[in-house]
Fold each of these.
Amino acid sequence: MTSDPSATPETPDSADPGSDPGSDNVVDDAPEVVEPLADLLVLADGVPPLTETAAALAEVCADLAAGTGPVAIDAERASGYRYSQRAYLIQLRRNGSHTALIDPIAFDSLAPLAEVLEGTEWILHAATQDLPCLNEIGLYPSALFDTELAGRLLGYPRVGLATLVETLLGFRMKKEHSAADWSTRPLPQAWLEYAALDVEVLVELRDRLAAELEETGKAEWARQEFEALRSFKQTPRTDAWRRVSGLHRVRGRRSLGAVKALWETRDDLAAHRDVTPGRIIPDAAIIAAAVALPTDRAELQEVKGFHGRGADRYGARWVEALERVAALEEDELPSRSPKGDGPPPPRAWAEKDPVAATRLQLARDAVAALSEQHHLPVENLLTPDVLRRTLWSPPATRDAGDLLDGVVDQLTAMGARAWQVALTAPVITTAVLQADALAADKAAAKAAEKAAQREADRSDLPAEAEPQDVGDSDGEGV
């Protein structure tokens, strides 16, 4: 509605401001309702001492062994500061014992801790972030519960630890120090308090989420997901250099080769120094050098990003990398699009295989409907990669039963859990059959259209002349 700015809406004295449907300019005088802040989470037992000696570790292990139930575990890394993803602090808490903070850098072995944790359930938040660094120091879970993944399965829109703790337990968590350099020694007391809070109520959060999983019939789904996480390994990145920010600005295979060579040189230096690669030279410098392709150190120093301390220190290495690229034959240089082992990008399916494109769209719609029905993210129902691979190369059979069995086998072979297979295999099978049926109907309609056109074309031809009699009735010619 558009109001006349010169008119003043009349509102009866008894009317509630804002109740007049004929006015767009009513001011609501009701006081704004401000939700009270939740109580700030604090440590029940204060900040525990940092465990740095064998004697102190033995005490921590004895204390954990005296506790009962699952063990809340967290690890702090120095992402953004260090090249490695090693753990620089481990936090643990268990009912019946105290919170422990362990400095893994101080120990050659954490075998005593691994022994006391054997057979316990670990509670982790976002397990895929912490498991690799915990495995690196010899700690492997016998069982686990991932509170972040549980939140996803339950359909919570935001599953960060602080959000779940406030939503389910009613406590606010401190957010500072999350991006701290945990390789710092000594660790500040405020950082240790922050770290201890990460496991303070993790056991209670686990119990609340576990109860919801049972209530919603998703407990078995979660059990299968958690079991799969126990063997989680980070997948090595293929052509990781292609993730350099700004790569789209690079034109030509030789410039792409320069990006690759400079990235690999930077990565080697970062690994050797154990610093994050961006602290040596930023991605922007790699892109700028790949575009300019300088031929010597003087030209390189004119490139933006190569006149700082880190860039200048390794000037000879950068020039050497560029010289190697300059000497390569054209067919030795990287291509714009990497060769993958999977199907083509979905945008190319319609051209390469229209039937596959149709079955992918049908399956996507069906899986999206399932995710909405069960209140969980689509990617947790079935990963996009598994769905694409299955739809690009489904089983050859079109017998409904055999096709379903084949789809089940394919999904299982690619790591889908039994609960995911049970939900998605039937709709994927239906999508394959429907796509084929639609293609057949389309082909039949096209054939019928062509036949009709041929018939129409024949009917438009002039009729052939009837043969004429050249004689009279008695057979005599004219």
Amino acid sequence: MKTTIQFRRLLFILVLFMLQACGQTPKKINDTQNSTTMENIINKPENPYYSNTDTTKLNVSDAEWKKVLSPDLYAVSRNADTERAFTGKLWDSNTKGTYYCAACGNKLFKSDQKFASSCGWPSFFEQDNKNSVVYKEDNSYGMKRIEALCGRCDGHLGHLFDDGPKPTGKRYCMNSIAMDFVPDKIISKNSSGNTLEKITLGGGCYWCVEAVYEKLDGVKSVVSGFAGGKNANPTYEEVCTGRTGHAEVVEITYDNTKTNLDEIFKVFFTVHDPTTLNRQGADVGTQYRSAIFYANETQKLAAQSIINQLNSEKVYENPIVTTLEPLTQFYKAEDYHQNYYQNNKNQQYCQMVIQPKLEKFEKVFKARLKE
């Protein structure tokens, strides 16, 4: 952390790093569960390749698929058969939820990407992400079409056409049997019926990270604090030295009927730089490390999955250095650090460093802002 004089000296540097930097001054400002995540809701013990979190490309023999898939699903997924129009259970469904590949569990579409179509098959105008669905030319039956395949297992899903609605103009014409559908109301419940979950993240200065997540729909509370160190009940000044081993973090409590780990992590990797070791812009030290503190194996696997995906897609020029650390204890920071941006919007630091991050978040996640 920095003194007021140091902050002024670094002001020029902060401008250059305004989308990543996260310096603070130590001046005190007066203040006027265990869970089951959405991604693991489906279990298919007869199919060892099925996973809602693992995005690793599969290389499974046709003979093996025949052993683990039902005859109807095998016919569509591996032999590119097509179910008869208007017979699939999902073609006219408007229930809110998520669509997964029925063969391997890969997430394909969300219900808000689906539209009413008269073709007799489930139709979508956009896929979940650029790797969820892949394509190849299909010249069968004397027609020239684009076949749509699962991006993880290469299973046949349907075809892609250019007669869909805006904004993409695409129509993903899918077979119902090739997809598993999980309604939000089912996904949202864990075994105790509680819909609130927690995740602890470190992305540099907790003032910035807190301000971003406070605006995400579904987030109930964000608390700034410390995790990952060796001292119990550390103070702000002790953590500033960089000798306690703690990272500045935020504890996010969210309603899993409105958001999920996947979205929480997407925001996380959008609003900070996960490729700089022990620093964010002008802030240097282990207390500024990019870190995900997982409370259970589900959170760890989900975090590792998205990191692997981002690295494989080379989203960043450099490899991600975000650490995955077990959450042993979260310590709340002093009261004057809570809701810092909301309480100090007119401060130069808030306007020059935090505000640009908020603007970036609001632009990318425009449809997911709290009303």
